[in-house]
Design brief:
The chain is α/β, with parallel strands linked by helices. The chain has a single domain (3-268), classed as Rossmann fold (3-Layer(aba) Sandwich). The protein has 9 helices and 11 strands. The protein has helices at residues 3-23, 26-31, 38-47, 64-71, 83-96, 110-114, 135-145, 159-162, 213-222, and strands at 54-58, 75-80, 101-104, 119-124, 146-157, 186-189, 205-208, 226-233, 245-247, 253-255, 265-271. The chain has a 7-stranded mixed sheet, with helices on both faces. A two-stranded antiparallel sheet has the order 6-7. α1 runs parallel beside α5 (83-96) and α7 (135-145) crosses α9.
Amino acid sequence: MDDEARTLNLSNWESRVPFHLAGYGIERLLADASAVSGVVAFDRPRLGDIAGLDAVHLQCHIGTDTLSLARLGARMTGLDFSPSAIAAAADLATKAGVEVEYVVADLDDAPAALGRNRFDLVYTGIGALCWLPDIRRWASVVASLLRPGGRLFIREGHPVLWAMCDPRDDDLLVLEFPYFEVPGGTRFVESKTYIEHEGDLAQPITIGYNHGLGEIITALLDEGMTLTSFEEHRSVPWNPLGDVMVEGDDEEFRLRDGADRLPLTYTLQARKPA
């Protein structure tokens, strides 16, 4: 990531933290020691038993999913480039009485900051890859962090969804932005985040990067990883498309009409050879 993009994106994410602390369901997580985030609740059947695993959550933000994974029994480390997000995540873990190691570092620097061949599980959640300019570098980081036999688990926004334009008055679903990785990424100006909140972001400009499914899978294969599971989903845990979406009882959003038309997220799992 070039210096301008990193500066813009870091400033943007720093300005998101106060809004997300008020809108990420933290009170529920603190009120119930068995509660997990909606994202991890969706992932849980596919994650399987992670008790006792050494796991790292890359791009962990304010740590609600990291805390949730720790509550499922994993020994968790969280990494993010935002000091404010990591401070909030550490405070949340302390209040919940859950031990989590948190580290401030760019994803590219994760092997040096955390140690190579250290983890049984690398977990990456929703809305992470779109901030990374080079998917091959990401795959290299993942492979270097995992022990032999270790596993990658990622549920992410589908690249078709990332390529779609903002909600339209005529409710048409239109591809506007690149599906494939392009040099320099795409500049966006958005005064709000993906959750409802009062007030505007202090720094609304971001640089985003899409990556096609073939690019993601090929990058992992080229690092010697073995693809073990891939599933596309009709739902996403926030509303990206306005009135054409409807929220279900599981707190996931789907197209109001014709949900089979559009993949919204996917879950990918891969393993480093033993």
